[in-house]
Amino acid sequence: QVQLVESGGGVVQPGGSLRLSCAASGFTFSSYGMHWVRQAPGKGLEWVAVIWNDGSKKFYAGSVKGRFTISRDNFKNTVYLQINSLRDEDTAVYYCAKGSSNWIDHWGQGTLVTVSS
Amino acid sequence: DIQMTQSPPSLSASVGDRVIITCRASQDIKNYLAWFQQKPGKAPQSLIYAAFSLQTGVPSKFSGSGSGTEFTLTISSLQPEDFATYYCQQYDTYPYTFGQGTRLEI
């Protein structure tokens, strides 16, 4: 079955950087787009970014464009989210999600990023 | 960006009830609409895609309808495990956007 396991979250100071990873298994990773979605404490879901199956195209939410970079390694079955210039409002649980055609069909359990001095 | 508006923000219901949640898009998104369920402290789960198609394994008590700008999620014969927060999401245009959520409470 599909498994998505995020890692890399933690506490980071404002202005700092972090790289999140999502290890995928149970499906042909190189055939599917992958997404990151985040959820601030007590708030709703916010779509963050997507990368196409071959890495040829990437799209971002306006709130993270220029600070976040999504990438993938189809040999390691892993998708990454590099997050730079962290702000208080980036504090959230970050979920990795598998795409199916264009929609999301599976989610990981999430990794918490806390921006705090 | 396309704005997604859900109503109501919260909804009280009882076991056995049928409920309807509405999602409105700020522009035509054809049928590129998904619904997700999230229980407290848990990751979201995918319920419906293409406005009315059930994800594998989702019970038929969940149904979706609509196209263009108006969509609904109907949950019939509510059971205790159905009490959760439900989100719609458009995937017609990047950036994808979610509704603010509807909290379904007993």
How would you sum up this structure, described in words?
The complex is a heterodimer of chains A (117) and B (106). By secondary structure, chain A is mainly β. Helix content of chain A is 0%, strand content 54%. Chain A has strands spanning 3-7, 10-12, 18-25, 34-39, 45-51, 58-60, 68-73, 78-83, 92-100, 103-107, 111-115. The termini of chain A are far apart. Chain B is mostly beta strands and 106 residues long. Chain B has strands at 4-7, 10-12, 19-25, 33-38, 45-49, 53-54, 62-67, 70-75, 85-90, 97-98, 102-105. In chain B, strands 2, 4, 5, 6, 9, 10 and 11 form a 7-stranded mixed beta sheet that branches. Chain B has a 4-stranded antiparallel beta sheet with strand order 1-3-8-7, with no helix packed on it. In chain B, strand 5 and strand 6 form a beta hairpin. Classes of the chains: A mainly beta (117), B mainly beta (106).
Topology:
The complex is a heterodimer of chains A (117) and B (106).
Chain A: E1 3-7, E2 10-12, E3 18-25, E4 34-39, E5 45-51, E6 58-60, E7 68-73, E8 78-83, E9 92-100, E10 103-107, E11 111-115
Chain B: E1 4-7, E2 10-12, E3 19-25, E4 33-38, E5 45-49, E6 53-54, E7 62-67, E8 70-75, E9 85-90, E10 97-98, E11 102-105
Parallel strand pairs in B: 2-11
Antiparallel strand pairs in B: 1-3, 3-8, 4-5, 4-9, 5-6, 7-8, 9-10, 9-11
